[in-house]
């Protein structure tokens, strides 16, 4: 089965006072050029922020993030990859940051991941992210889960949303709309079901010309108006 974009648009549009209000509400994705211009320190920072957000109130983590930026010298991957276990233990005494040993240990691991991609691809991590096709965004999720530290589940997509890469999110409301439309019958976990979801988003994108992040938000709003 497929989702009808015109129905989706009308279902969401009626929740807003104007076209402008709806467009302003929808999330924004950066252009490939903007993603390439971001330093790789920004990607490591966002990975780390997303890791700490998992299982916590995002607002708490976000409020602490300036202190993280200061404590970790701006998240330069070439510096962060050198963090020793003893240094990690030292951070456990820093009450300005969130002291979670396992999550702190992901910082040098994800720094190594970024450096490995740079070496393998011969480009910055930002270029690697920018060049990945949105038509296979689930493939990027798989890579982040396999090679990154604690970037599986929803964290990979959450990281991409933080840095501005166009991606959909499989929130409970998005899944509910996909189930109601007969695209899937439950939250997708298998690669087959994930591909079915990707295909559904690709079809909506081709019909609408909208980025994945718009379509994801619209699917969510069609279930939960959030007003």
Instruction: Figure out the total of helices.
Output: 15
Question: What structural class results from the helix and strand content?
Answer: mainly alpha
How many whole angstroms does the radius of gyration measure?
19 Å
> Level of helix content?
55-70%
Shape: globular
- Poorly predicted runs of 5 or more residues: none
Which second-level CATH architecture of the largest domain applies? Answer: Orthogonal Bundle
Average predicted local confidence, pLDDT: 97
CATH topology of the largest domain: Endonuclease III, domain 1
Architecture overview:
With 227 residues, the protein is mainly α. It folds into two domains: 5-29 and 168-223, no CATH class; 33-163, Orthogonal Bundle (Endonuclease III, domain 1), CATH 1.10.340.30. The protein has helices at 5-13, 19-25, 32-37, 40-53, 58-71, 77-80, 85-91, 101-104, 106-121, 125-131, 137-147, 155-163, 172-180, 191-208, 212-223. The longest helix is centred in the last third of the chain and has 18 residues, at 191-208.
